[in-house]
Amino acid sequence: MAFIMKPYILVVGSSNTDMVVKAKRLPAPGETVLGGTFIMAAGGKGANQAVAAARLGANVAFVAKVGDDIMGRQAVESFRREGIDTGGVVTDPVNPSGVALITVDARGENCIVVASGANGNLLPSDLGVEKIKNAALILMQLEIPLGTVEYVAEQAFAFGIPVILNPAPASALSNELLKRVAILTPNQKEAEMLSAVPIVDRASAELAAAVLAGKGVKTVVITLGGDGALVLDAGEYVEVPAPAVTAVDTTAAGDVFCGALAVARSEGRPVREAVAFACAAAALSVTRMGAQPSAPGREEVDRLTR
Questions:
Q1: ω before 7 within 30° of 0 (cis)?
Q2: What sign does the dihedral 18-292-91-76 (CA atoms) show?
Q3: What is the spatial distance between Cα 73 and Cα 166, in angstroms, rounded to a whole number?
């Protein structure tokens, strides 16, 4: 069932099925590591962020492309169970649904390979301008064609709709796109790539954020894992710590962060408070396995931020 919600967060992005093996350590090239535990779960950066936002109480509409296969149908049904508007989820008659192969080690670190499938065929023609125009806020990532991301950002900018862009996986971005981004949320590696500044300490992180702001981004939030986030907003740098937790699986922690940030901003919270809310949600997510299964509910995050 598709339904219209207003105001709503519009998430435009990818949907994958994650096939996860948890092992003592990540294998070296050419090596086989035995003794793993296998989990299959719903994933994809766009879908993860949509589910995270929905579980935190937001009205969410999702635009994505899935294959005409069992994984695509299961994904859409899962989104509906989460209360997400699936009217913008398109079925691709040619390409299969996206798949991610993920290995997680005993410390919760991971390595991921993605077969994009239908995600790579999500085109501007698959989006209705009305869905963009009526959104309260738009959240995107880079597991779909860059041309589609640029199109949505251009339309959103014209209508005055703020865009949060999670530049993952890392890719070169034009200044024209960055000027249309209200909040950019790179992790350390992505910030280094986009700014050409190696991040080794607080000063270099501030420099990287300044370079990105100089390209036109209004607010830069560099996520730093267990160390929280560095925010550059309105010319002011703020460090936001993350709650201390024991990580089990860091898969989708950045996606949960972005979904939570979108929720808090859509509720009108100031940037620093929104980032603290997002850090708490991400911290909870790393204490459990899986991508979408790890996204916390609103009461859990509220308890942690009191």
A1: yes
A2: positive
A3: 26
| Coil, strand or helix at 62 | strand
What global pTM score does this model have?
A: 0.91
Exposure class string for 66-103: b at 16+ Cβ within 10 A, else e: bbebebbeebbebbeebebbbebbbebeebbbbbbebb
**What ranges in 82-201 are assigned the alpha helix state H?**
129-133, 146-159, 175-178, 188-195
**What percentage of residues in the chain have a pLDDT greater than 70?**
98
Q: How far apart are the first and last CA of the chain?
A: 36
Structure tokens at 139: 């959240």
- Is residue 126 exposed (0-12), middle (13-18) or buried (19+ Cβ within 10 Å)? middle
Q: Indicate the pLDDT class of residue 5, thresholds 50, 70 and 90.
A: low
Within 10 Å of residue 197's Cβ, how many Cβ atoms? Answer: 18
Specify whether the CB–CB gap between 12 and 127 falls below 8 A: yes
Which of the residues 18, 85, 255, 302 is marked catalytic? 255
User: Rounded distance, CA 144 to CA 146, Å?
Assistant: 6
pLDDT digit string (tens) for 104-151?
A: 898 888 888 989 999 999 999 999 899 999 999 999 999 999 999 999
Neighbours of 236 (CB within 10 A): 9
- Say whether the peptide bond before residue 29 is cis (omega within 30 degrees of 0): no
Task: Measure the CA–CA gap between 48 and 86, rounded to whole angstroms.
Answer: 14
C-beta of residue 118 within 8 angstroms of C-beta of residue 65: yes
Q: 18 an active-site residue? A: no
**Is the per-residue pLDDT at 284 higher than 90?**
yes
CA distance 225 to 253: 8
Give CA separation, 69 vs 62, 77, 256, in Å: 19, 13, 27
